[in-house]
Amino acid sequence: MINIAIDGPAGAGKSTLSRLLAKDLGYIYVDTGALYRAVGLKFSMKGFDTELKGDIAEVLGETAVDIRFIDGAQRVFLDGKDVSDDIRTPTASMMASAVSAKPEVRAFLLDMQRGLAQRNNVVMDGRDIGTVVLPNAKVKIFLTADVEVRAERRYKELCEKGQQVDFADVLEEMKVRDYNDSHRPIAPLKQADDAVLADTTSLTFDESLELLKKIVEEGV
Length: 220
Ligand code: DC
Known about the structure:
Blueprint: E1 3-7, H1 14-25, E2 28-31, H2 33-45, H3 56-61, E3 65-70, E4 73-78, E5 81-82, H4 90-99, H5 103-119, E6 122-126, H6 129-133, E7 139-144, H7 147-160, H8 167-183, E8 196-199, H9 205-219
Parallel strand pairs: 1-6, 1-7, 2-6, 7-8
Antiparallel strand pairs: 3-4, 4-5
Helix pairs in contact: 2-4, 4-8, 7-8
The protein binds 2'-deoxycytidine-5'-monophosphate.
């Protein structure tokens, strides 16, 4: 199976670009952030905040996260319910970032991610795909852009979805998530030694997609 790993910070355009890249290649697209978001949602529903004070293992013991592909699109299920839309709020983002720092949570989701990549040609995106989940991926890309540019893109996306947000809050939240994701002791966000850096700060969306396609063509 051919595995393509795409890592990078929040708002770099990973999911949209990875989805289109996968479509172009005829591979399955796996958005691993959605798994952490589903776990984060479960902890919120259980009354936890981002400090996650309590018995993590006990909550995980009664949690079932599952990915299904419906008409080629990934849907995420939490305890049998499709939560694909519920996980896309700023609160869910912060909870996802918090739970993702917990070793128990990372271990809980690891086999599912590896299993998908063993059974399918995949474009898998996340934070630690090239470094931890799929260290033998055929192509590894580290996709990034300056934080202001990423916040601007995320702000527009949320506004288009009709969410009431303030740009300063989006920027601040992105900085906090960048910090948390890259400073946690396990599986921090970092470029794998053998990953190709793709910086999209000054690229349009189409140019970014072309860049990724070129990197993949050269690497596969
Ligand atoms: O990609 P995203 O914004 O949907 O990810 C949500 C959070 O999940 C993010 O703050 C970091 C975490 N995450 C992770 O730790 N490892 C992954 N492979 C994917 C996401």
